[in-house]
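Two proteins, back to back. First:
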Amino acid sequence: ATNLILPVLTNGTQTTNFNTAVTANGNRGVLTLYSATLFGGSGNQKAFAFTNSYISATSVINLLPVAPSGEGYPHVFLNSIGSGTCTMTISNIGYTSITSTINIHYQIVN
């Protein structure tokens, strides 16, 4: 028999700056990042913690960053994963600055 895992949608919002931790306790949802300019080009990376009770050390975490059309190319990657938390880094790999809010859609698979 297969266990059916129902989605638990939970969103989280980052406050203060790009390095502020975000908490959202669902197995999927949207993280709304702090609204500030993320300049394009290499070397402009912002790391932050994502706290979530569904995360375990063996979780697979799918991330999809979304920015408004024409505003750079957001890129996100995981630095580390532990029980209840992970650290990720967001950067803009495009030449154009992102001046609007970036959303990261997430899904946690255990």
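And the second protein:
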Amino acid sequence: EILWESRGFFLTFPIPFTVYTLTRERILLKRGIIKTNYDETRLYRVNDIKLSQNLIQKFCDTYTITLYTRDKAEASLLIKNVKQGHKVKELISNLVEESRRRNRVINAEF
């Protein structure tokens, strides 16, 4: 079940070759024109979430969401130029906690 899906944006124009998809268990990224890459991160592996906005993004009302994960191959995952960044960050945060409970994963900070 897809809970959120968006294309990346450049200024205010959607980028057709970047697609972000969020389900209850995973975040999926599809990138590329000629060569398409598919990246998948299970939500229970997310340790921290950061929301940021540079000057150009402020004019376009978009944000970058950075997910810091336990994945050695992809230690951080950038979701760039997202509309309604605060709302999407909260959705991801809630789904991460829900996924941890479902999978009985404890996020110990040392």
